[in-house]
Amino acid sequence: MKLVFPEKKYELQYKKLVESAIINNDASELGNAYRENETFDAMIKRLEKRKKGIELTSRDVSSTMYFMITDDGRLVGTIDLRHYLNDNYYSRLGHIAYYVKKEERNKGYATEALSLALEKYKEKGINEVLITCLKNNVASIKVIKKNNGKFEKEFYDQKTDNYIKRFWVNNGLKKIIKPSTVWLTTNTTCNNNCKWCYAKSFTKLKRNMQVDEVEKYVKVLKQTGFKKIILIGGEPSVHPDILQIIKIINDSGLKVSMATNARKFADYNFADKTVKNGLENINISIKGSSEKEYLESTNSYGLEEMLKGYKNLKSLGANVSLSYVLCDTDYEKFDRFWDLVKKYNLNNIMFQLYKPSASDTENPVTIETLAEICKYVYDKIYKDDVNFIFEMSIPLCTLDENMLKHMIKTKRITTCCHISKGSGMIFDTDFNILPCNHFMGHPLNEKPVSLDSLIDFWNSKDVKEFRSIIKKYPSEICSRCSKWYFCGGGCMIRWLSNDPDEVINDKYVYDKEVS
């Protein structure tokens, strides 16, 4: 047998395959291989686009559909290989879907086709392949097990009203994860003293990254394949050598961004030098809508400086965005903030939600509160001519359903946690590796990691196990929910100190339909 992309010479056999499927009420199982009233040529064009990831829905992924062709040239079935998994396919459908013509079943064709498909994944460097089937599909279970599929679990799928079994096939490859983004905690010092600061206990240490160390690490990061570096703190702009650090990163060919309170950028000459040295993207955190509010939040007078810094950076052509943290239901405070946005023509707003740090013990802000403030804010602003997005760190099933649908449709929402994917690496000032910037003082490494072993450490047993644990948070409820494919259960920080079976208030799942 061989797997071939649809060709014109198989058109007649394909039509007979479809006729058989329709007669046997199996047409839906053909999946991407069939659309009602579609010509063979149109199908090929559609599948070519699908293979390239063109014209896909937000829930879909690129894939390649093959015909199963026997050694004597007969088309006996189809098999669809997804190039990767988003949360929709991870939670329900897996990497592979196949169909064998009813008249050709029980001849070993599905087993052989699956074996060939696994070889294709192996050639692409995909180590672990997820295959799912209905609990009562005994034939498919046998096919999967013959190809060394290891049973993981079964779950109830509300969309099909059936139980689904999940199997994993290991291709014997060593999966190497290489992050694309680095956060450098350039310093612990800050010109504010925010009461909610995740690094508050470290700002008094007054530690700075050394320029020569930055230069060494940036060189290795570039060679390793990283794409961009984000400078964080403390407040990175107050690092005494920040201009030199920006230039080092830019000269290496890496993109350089910064998360800042922007107060120092009120100095036009400083702002000009940062942009000329290569600072490309700047995200400014807004701490209040008046000097009084700014003082209450940060113990500093900084609003006027922040606004001037924003203006300077925009005039210099930098890509500037703003972040505002939603943490309580003081709606009048938000209204004042939105008046500020309109008064000063501020744009590109990212709404972040309060997230506790590793040192928090009380978690004073609840999920319910955050969901409530999101609803108020979105209802107030969604019609305004301001570019904004919500960075969600709570389970999406806790949000108002109509609002969430509208957010997705208008692309006003993203999720934020990179940890489980291993796509981002964060260094503290001593180049210890943190799981998250909210985990200052809690590095993943027990001893310094040498430059030549960064990726080895990132793929070491303990770090992989940490990512594996994070993937399972917050609970089994989330792994069963396939409604919002990119949710992932929200930011895992909040749940680390809790029992995984209790991290979601069940009423949010069971009081509403989540299929």
CATH architecture level-2 label of the largest domain: Alpha-Beta Barrel
Tell me the number of structural domains: 2
Q: How much helical structure, as a percent, in the residues?
A: 25-40%
What is the approximate shape?
elongated
Write the CATH homologous superfamily of the largest domain. Answer: Aldolase class I
Largest beta sheet: strand ordering = 15-14-13-12-11-10-9-8-16-17
Mean pLDDT: 86
* Secondary structural class: alpha/beta
Could you give a short account of the major beta sheet?
10 strands, mixed
Q: What is the fold named in CATH at topology level of the largest domain?
A: TIM Barrel
Instruction: Determine Rg (CA atoms, Å).
Output: 26 Å
Count of extended strands: 17
How do the strands and helices of this protein lay out in sequence?
Blueprint: E1 2-4, H1 11-23, H2 40-52, E2 63-69, E3 75-82, H3 87-93, E4 96-100, H4 109-123, E5 128-134, H5 138-146, E6 150-157, E7 162-170, E8 181-185, H6 211-224, E9 228-232, H7 242-252, E10 255-260, H8 268-276, E11 279-285, H9 291-298, H10 303-315, E12 319-326, H11 331-343, E13 349-353, H12 367-381, E14 388-392, H13 401-409, E15 413-415, E16 424-427, E17 433-434, H14 454-458, H15 461-471, H16 476-480, H17 507-510
Parallel strand pairs: 8-9, 8-16, 9-10, 10-11, 11-12, 12-13, 13-14, 14-15
Antiparallel strand pairs: 1-2, 2-3, 3-4, 5-7, 6-7, 16-17
Helix pairs in contact: 6-7
